[in-house]
Amino acid sequence: MKVLFVLAHPEPQSLSASLCRVAVDALRAEGHETMVTDLYADGWKAVVDREDFPALAAETRLRVPAASGEAFASGTLTEDVASEQAKLRAADALILAFPLWWFSMPAILKGWIDRVYSHGFAYGVGEHSDRRWGDRYGEGMLAGKRAMLMVTSGGWETHYGPRGINGPIDDLLFPIQHGMLFYPGYEVLPPFVTYRADRLDAAGFDAAAERLEERMRTLFTTVPLPYRHQNGGDYLIPSMELQPSIEPGQAGFSVHLREPAGSGA
């Protein structure tokens, strides 16, 4: 199997980068092929602008979804974006490795999503009608592949627990896991989270590395998070609300799971 890592940390000796190397070595030991996109080392351009659409006429107003779709369809996306899309097509699994900065991913990784997830590739796919609202949330170009987050956090695990002040880690990661991974079709695995990153000693790193190696050995057998598929009958179309009979009176991120999820921490 082929696994693509997208690493987003400016320090090569960071915990994120070190764990990424552990994961790569573990997968290779199992006979898998790995690819690594190191965003900071590669000097990844993080912002979407007119430079992303060289075929767009100077006098034409930039509407990003339309320009993105036209560039994807005509094969005029920039080389860096096209290269990353080719990696995503080739990979059987995607792992995003990053530190949790201000309750989300670093800006450079969000910029990778913004630019690589072009219209016609990751969104705007499939039939849009009063019967079907596109191929998304469990369907799409990346369906049949797996994805996982590998996150480091400076806070304590209890800070991200069900009653922790930072909010439950599953809720904080929901926009990434459900909105950026499940949306274009990935089967999303429970995240691998390492807490107290700045205070991790050698013994703590060894313990985290051992847990991560086990996760890599089971990357293709772990049961994914049971997100509800958009077109599986659980949602009304086109309002995209859950059927009234499903978890009546309940709301929030958890209702989009068929059963409670663990954080994988």
TrEMBL record:
Residues 1-215 form the Flavodoxin-like fold domain. GO terms for cellular component: cytosol. It comes from the Bacteria. It comes from Aureimonas endophytica. Pfam families: Flavodoxin_2. The keyword Magnesium does not apply. Keywords: Oxidoreductase. This is NAD(P)H dehydrogenase (Quinone). Gene3D superfamilies: 3.40.50.360. One of its GO terms (molecular function) is NAD(P)H dehydrogenase (quinone) activity. Belongs to the NAD(P)H dehydrogenase (quinone) family.
